[in-house]
Each structure stands twice: as structure tokens, then as C-alpha cells.
Amino acid sequence: MRRQILNRPEDASAEALEGLALTHPTLIAYDPRAGIVTRATPARDKVGLVSGGGAGHEPLHAGFVGTGMLDVAVPGAVFASPTALQVHEGTVAADSSRGVVQIVKNYTGDVLNFQIASELAGNDAVETEVVLVDDDLATQNDDGPGRRGTAAVLAVEKICGASAEAGAELGEVAELGRRVARNSRTLAFALSAGTHPGATEPAFTLGMDEVELGVGVHGERGTGRVRFADADALTALLIDPLVTDLGLTRGSSVIAIVNGLGGTYPIEIGVAARAVHRILADRGIAIAGSLAGNYVTSLDMVGLSLTLLPADTDLIPLWEAPVRTPAWTW
User: Fold this and answer.
1) Helix axes 266-282, 231-246, angle to 10 degrees
2) The 3-state secondary structure of 175-236, one letter per residue
């Protein structure tokens, strides 16, 4: 049985958001009535950025509200979309008269509720643009809604956030985000699944010699199982398909995000990051920007995802631009 540090499981998300806001009062504020997280001091005269989705992926999205990234985050319950009314409140709160970019991960509930919220915002004379993030290579050939949205949302929020902070117009910020989303790919593996708050068992179980390849961030099973191996070999299982799909060759340059899935210890993430740098260097692929840590998680899942984004020259200054949020500052 997985013991958890909770009061009532159904209150976990709201209590965690309150705790985050109390810990970072100069950066963010939590409105429990609206169910949204905003900048402590709203930005003025810039394009607004709003994103959101189910809880259970912390620090996404509330941890990325602040200078250089989001203006508002709209969290739902664990692994559940926020409501359309929540997203509408968040969109209106993000607007400072220059319009709002809604950054949406490709899940049916999120897409539907952000679409409704966009229509409602139009009634309030708030101009919106939508950026759909659909980077998960494991679901590229699935029937249905297409690739899932996973850790590439970090690159979209960071690069769009820097562009908006620099004064870019609504259409420019949105088109930049769409280009980042279109060109990003992610793949993940898990050594063990996450456990839903209040549950006694994980979403799925694995044998000691098994690794689930192609997992999603809602506890979804992968595309198959492979044998457990050392960090270099497991990391290569992620790199090979991403390099092939993106058409990367010697002389290419990328932004790389090595992302823990919640239960992965920092020392393990560091070892995997080392492998990513070494393997790509051996193939003549340069890493122009990188990030490593637990950022887009799946409760306490033990595993990793790797996101690669071709590093177009104009993206690097935006990736390197200052950012100050509870979960990411440089």
C-alpha cells in the first residue's frame, strides 16, 4: 500500500495550490473561488498567457506562473480537465488589453473546455489565440485525437512567455508557440506507475526486469515493454526514435528537456542528462539549451521523458531569456 501525506484525497489539489502560493507570495496568488493561479502582481501592456490541465503533473502548470512564462494557470482535479468556466476566468484574468494566448495540451477534455472558454472570452471582448501542444511520439500513429501533449509544453510556455515579455503582438506569440509545438517531440519510459491520491495500488505494475516504454502522463500504459537496462541504454531508447522522427543529423542543434515523471530521484535524472549529452555529442548533434528535473510529472511515477526541439537561431535568445517562477528561475 502506498502511504501518502494527505488530508482528504479530494482536497489534495486545492490544498497544494494554497501551499504553493503561501510559499511564494511575491510571485503568485491563488484564487480558490475561481480555481486559478495568477501572478502576484499582474503584468500590464503585454500579451497574456494562460495554460492549465489536470493536477498530478506538478510543478506544471501553477509552478510556471511568473515573469517570463505564464500569467495564469488553471488547474483541474487530479488527471481531470479544468472546467470551461474556470478557463474563462483565467483567460479574462490574463488579459491586459492585448489579447491572450491559450496554451492547451492535446487531450479531449482540455481542448473542448479551452475552446468553449475562448468563445466566452470573445463575448467579453478578449481576443484569444490557441496553441495546441501535441508532442508525444508514442501516440503519433494512434487513431483518435493524435499525439498527446506532454513535456514540450514547457518549451512552448517558456519561449512564448519570453516573446510576450519582450512586447510581441498576439499573433506573433501564438505563431511562435505553434512552431515550437509542431517541431517538438517527446518520448517517455517508466520503471513504475504513479498512484492516484487515496488509491492503494499504482495504475499498473511491472516486473523487476520490465520497463514500460511510451507511457503517458496520466498513468497511461505504453506501447510495449522492454527489458530493464542501465541508464545509458534506457536513455538511448528515447533518443533513437526522436532523432529519427525529427530528421536530426550531424550538425543539427537542439533544445533538450530531460524530465522526471515525479518519483525519479534527482541523481537519476542527472545520470540520464549526462547520457543525453554524451549520446547526442557522439552523433554530432549539439545541445544549444537544456533543462533537467521533475517538471511535467505523473504523480509518483518513476521514469523519464525526453523532449527534443530543433534549436532554430531565433529560439535560443527566448529560451535563455530571464524567467522567475516558483519552479523555474534563471
Assistant:
1) 50
2) HHHHHHHHHCEEEEEEEECCCCCCCCCCCCCCCCCEEEECCCCCCCCCCEEEECCCHHHHHH
- Provide the grid cell at 136: 508525444
Q: Which of 24, 61, 196, 218 is catalytic?
A: 218
Q: Are the CB atoms for 137 and 274 separated by under 8 Å?
A: no
Q: Which three cell numbers stand for residue 325?
A: 517562477
Q: What is the pLDDT of residue 1?
A: 62
Alpha carbon distances (Å) from 287 to 18, 163, 164, 277, 305: 37, 21, 25, 7, 17
Write the burial class of residue 162 (CB in 10 Å: 0-12 exposed, 13-18 middle, 19+ buried). buried
- Using CA atoms, how far apart are residues 106 and 134, in angstroms rounded to an integer? 5
61 tagged catalytic: no
Averaged pLDDT in 10-residue chunks for the chain of 330 residues:
87 96 98 96 96 96 98 96 96 96 96 94 91 96 84 98 98 98 98 91 92 94 94 97 97 98 97 98 98 97 98 96 97
Run of H or E including 87: helix 84-94
Query: In angstroms, how far is the first alpha carbon of the chain from the final one?
Result: 39
Q: What does residue 96 show for φ and ψ, rounded to 5 degrees?
A: -125, 35
Q: What is the pLDDT of residues 1-25, one digit of tens each?
A: 678 999 999 999 999 999 999 999 9
Length of the chain in terms of residues written: 330
Catalytic residue among 24, 57, 61, 88: 57
Identify whether 218 is a catalytic site residue: yes
- Edge-to-edge strand ranges of the sheet holding 302-310: 224-227, 210-213, 185-192, 302-310, 253-260, 286-294
Q: What is the pLDDT of residue 142?
A: 66
pLDDT digits (tens, 9 = 90+) for 74-128: 999 999 999 999 999 999 999 999 999 999 999 999 999 999 999 999 888 899 9
